[in-house]
Amino acid sequence: MHDAPPAADSLAAEKEPLSAGLKQRHLTMLGLGGVIGAGLFVGSGAGIAVAGPGIIVSYLIAGALAMLVMRMLGEMSAAMPASGAFSVHAERALGRWAGFTVGWLYWFLLVVVLAVEATGAAQIANGWVPGVPQWAWVLIFMVVFTAANLTAVKNFGEFEFWFAALKVGAIVLFLALSLLAVFGVLPDTEAVGFTNLTGQGGFLPNGVSGVVSGVLAVVFAFGGLEVLTIAAAESDDPARAVGRAVRSAVWRILFFYVGSMIVIVTLLPWSSMEPGKSPYVAVLDHIGIPAAGQIMNIVVFVALLSALNANLYGSSRMVFSLAERDEAPKALLKVSGSGVPRRAVLASVAFGFASVILNLQWPDSIFRYLLNAVGAVLLFVWGLIAVSQLRLRRRIEREMPERLALRMWCFPYLTWVALAGMAGVLVLMLTDEGARPQLMWSAAATGAVLLVAGVRELRLRRAG
């Protein structure tokens, strides 16, 4: 066991009892690969279908918002590294209710998405080996990654390093082949010019509203970057490690995302894209890559397992941090000899194992309701991150300016721009018939957590 954490009004960095087993290469690759997932490889098709070539602008807007959030997170995490990252920051900036709310909301988001990713990977594996039922594949994945996360944090780091390396390598190879095809260098290809960018209704075939709809379709694909700041607390030099990882990640991620969209809509008519179908497969088929569909199935499969692994890690550290601050059961504070919060890992993976039963009973419907419940939670979490950074930046400058190794650009103006952008996305969700149920369910989940936080706050004040 370990000493109690410092008071919420103290900005002093707390000493973590967890293992410092993550190296700089782990964090750098986690930052690069953490958001490269099925949302990009498959989900981007829906964005192209509504925005046309204007999806490039949609990704620029959504990516810029994610970069601003990441920069804010990097600033606070470099100054005050902690396993709970932005939950700890929210508590220090706004009070116990904020730390409790953002911590439990993020934990809820991760464990639901964890189960969905296990299901998605199981569907692909079932297609390869139909003799093994889908629920059995979910069970296999959950057992393997639970075992890896229970042993030592370096196992998580190694899994993520190689998963991310494969995803990054796949995108780099995709960009290289696509560029060669754009310029007609590949066999049996001709330079395409700008026909697909300016034809089919022009660069903005559905106008500004198409770009806006595209933002709504792609912004949530950037979720996952936050785990990097959680992981930094388990490195040898958290402040330096998170600063370097954030700097290297944000620009390269934007390059991967926007670069992919540029070559896709340049090579193929946007009107040929179908929601639910991977535009990457369409491009690889177009340039004559054999078995393009199976190649992308493998990449998506790895991306899903990578996200499962990262979300299991992130959720366990978040609930561990909540327990440190008396906002989750103290039993979760038990740390193994190798510095792993095993009870926190098991508590976080419990829903994943429950999903084995859910898959058996309702393989096609249950996760639609679960995903609706967390659909907009990421934006609520990002909003609290931005408000926390507004409050903490001045305090850090006043109390320990030497720790501002990484600074938010143009503070406070870009922080306010980011908040306005998040509010804009929420308004879009409210006016969009498809996204409105997600917003409503997520708002209900957030309201329930806020209610519990308020009741706890009243009880603590009466007791104190």
Put the structure in a nutshell.
The protein is mostly helical. The protein contains 19 helices and no strands.
Structural write-up:
There is one protein chain. The protein has 464 residues and is mainly alpha-helical. Helix content is 71%, strand content 0%. The chain contains 19 helices and no strands. It has helices spanning 24-33, 38-41, 44-51, 55-79, 86-94, 96-128, 134-151, 153-182, 195-198, 207-218, 226-231, 238-267, 279-286, 292-324, 342-361, 366-374, 377-399, 413-431, 436-463. Helix 8 (153-182) runs antiparallel to helix 14 (292-324). It starts with 23 loop residues before the first helix and ends with a helix.
What is the total tally of β strands?
A: 0
β content, as a range? under 5%
Instruction: List unreliable stretches of 5+ residues.
Output: 1-8
Radius of gyration: 22 Å
Order of helices and strands: HHHHHHHHHHHHHHHHHHH
SS-derived structural category: mainly alpha
Largest sheet properties: none
User: How many individual helices?
Assistant: 19
Question: What is the element layout, followed by pairings?
Answer:
Layout (H helix, E strand, L loop, with lengths): L23 H10 L4 H4 L2 H8 L3 H25 L6 H9 L1 H33 L5 H18 L1 H30 L12 H4 L8 H12 L7 H6 L6 H30 L11 H8 L5 H33 L17 H20 L4 H9 L2 H23 L13 H19 L4 H28 L1
Helix pairs in contact: 1-8, 1-12, 3-10, 4-10, 4-12, 4-17, 4-18, 5-6, 5-17, 6-7, 6-14, 6-15, 6-16, 6-17, 6-19, 7-14, 7-15, 8-12, 8-14, 13-14, 14-15, 16-19, 17-18, 18-19
